[in-house]
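Is FE2/S2 (inorganic) cluster placement plausible here? Inputs below.
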Amino acid sequence: MIVCSCNVLSDGAIKACLKDGGECPRSVREVYSCLGCSPKCGRCANTIRAIMEEAFAAAVACPPGCDCCAASIGIEAMAE
Ligand code: FES
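Reply from A.M.:
I modeled the complex. Tokens:
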């Protein structure tokens, strides 16, 4: 599903971007950057934020020491 029509970003591309290990985006703006674009109209920001929150929630179930990228997304970092 296309999440950002301005940059033609899909939810799958955003989720994949969140699993890139140490280079994992920690804010919505960093997601755009990770995917080689920048925000234009901004209508998709809330949806991207929701995808990030979902990834974070899923990472909470990771065992201690897991290097899952989404586990490193702090609540504060996602408030942007
Ligand atoms: S829909 Fe994403 S910047 Fe416009």
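Short version: Residues 74-80 have pLDDT under 50 and may be disordered.
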